[in-house]
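User: Some background: our group keeps a shared notebook of sequences we're curious about, and every so often someone picks one and asks for a predicted structure to add to the entry. Today it's my turn. The entry only has the sequence so far, pasted here. Could you supply the structure so I can complete it?
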Amino acid sequence: MPMSIIQASRPKGGRTEKRGPTFSGEVWYDSVLNKQEEGITMVTATFTPRARTHWHHHEDGQVLEVKAGSGWVCDKGGLPQKLQVGDI
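Assistant: Of course. Here's the predicted structure to add to the notebook entry:
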């Protein structure tokens, strides 16, 4: 199979702060890839200390990669699991 390269989105103006009903604290998003017509989006999210998302789910799943710091994730009804740098 030949190799294929998907060009990343290039943000114009740096980070955009995201605040709203799904976050508490400051969370910054950088768009990395936006191929919604193909069902693929990728962002780098930076959470300030103690910032978090509210409980939610992703219909098509989600992949998280921890690049700095640590955090917690939990399935509904499950036990919280700690994430640390390098975890995917």
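Suggested note for the entry: DSSP finds no helices and seven strands in the chain. The chain has a mean pLDDT of 81.
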